[in-house]
Amino acid sequence: MDLLQSIRLKAKELNKTIVLPEGEEERNIKAAQIIASQQLARVILIGNEAKIKSVVPDVNLKGIKVFDPDKENLTKYITALYEARKNKGMTMETAAEQIKDRLYLGVLMVKCHDADGMVSGAIHATGDVLRPALQIIKTAPGINTVSSCFIMVLPEGCKYGENGIMVFGDCAVNPCPTAEQLADIAISSAQTAKSVVGITPKVAMLSFSTKGSAKHELVDKVTEATRLVKERASDLPVDGELQLDAAIVEKVATLKAPGSNVAGKANVLIFPDLQAGNIGYKLVQRLAGAEAVGPICQGFNMPVNDLSRGCSVEDIVNVVSITALQTSI
């Protein structure tokens, strides 16, 4: 069984409710049908039923809840938005206007526990998806940074990672994280490895130096981030700073980082900045032929995920399944 099949099966067992604010968009509608027919989650499409049927004339809405904001009572969500943002100058009147943005409505459905998570972004920019989540759902306890990771599924027979599966973070959100933000990224990526992939994380904090082999302020940042992770998550196997070869190759680890509980065995790689992370995952994807699943958003108090605007129907189904698994964090 491949990883995505496993994720879908786990999602089916959880039976979570996921809201799709872009409910009148063709790919979202088709994905909702698949999700409902396979019982991967309970789906809420925000939209007008007649409009949905005009976009996909043969749509089967069995098992799908259509939430039409023009017909439903929105008082609960308007009040929740007001309460969440009143210290920023929000009034009930401005909340009633703001909630016309369906991304805000979707986030509020999650905030009010009418949905367990939200997936959007097929027709919206990343900033538009994440902004309401940052304002209303906010970050998880003990985490101050929203980040992303990719699940890298390496070609069959690859000896690295956990049976050829690794988690790379952050590859899509934070350009130049501080030591504190790197620590957040490491802890969040480890949680994703556990809840979504189902592996025991072994976290390597990557650098161009291993255990003091080079002296530089960029190395110091990674060393400090490693210290913070160990302080905040004492039971998490983590080590750094480590060069990539020391992190994943046992022979190199024996020479460069003897006695490490992670070096040579790492399955979660934390890159020092976005340039390294983005380049790193694409190198592995293109040169090694790995499948890159993501980006997966992490660090929110309740799960919200952003789609690529070029996403396929299958991508939406997979991200909804992943979002359902993130509810267990």
What does this structure look like?
With about 325 residues, the chain is of the alpha/beta class. The protein folds into two domains: about 5-140 and about 305-325, Rossmann fold, CATH 3.40.50; about 145-295, Isocitrate/Isopropylmalate dehydrogenase-like (Rossmann fold), CATH 3.40.50.10750. It is built from 13 helices and eleven strands. It has a six-stranded mixed β-sheet, with helices on both faces. Strands 3-2-1-4-11 form a five-stranded parallel β-sheet, with helices on both faces.
Question: What labels would you give this structure?
Answer:
single chain; 329 residues; alpha/beta; Rossmann fold; 2 domains; six-stranded mixed beta sheet; five-stranded parallel beta sheet; 13 helices; 16% strand
If classified by CATH, what would the architecture of the largest domain be?
A: 3-Layer(aba) Sandwich
* Mean pLDDT rating: 94
Number of helices: 13
Based on helices, strands and strand pairing, what is the structural class?
A: alpha/beta
Largest sheet: 6 strands, mixed
Per DSSP, what share of the residues sits in E-state strands of 2 or more residues?
A: 15-25%
Count of distinct strands: 11
Summary of the model, kept short:
The protein is α/β, with parallel strands linked by helices. The protein has two domains: 3-138 and 303-326, Rossmann fold; 147-293, Rossmann fold, CATH 3.40.50.
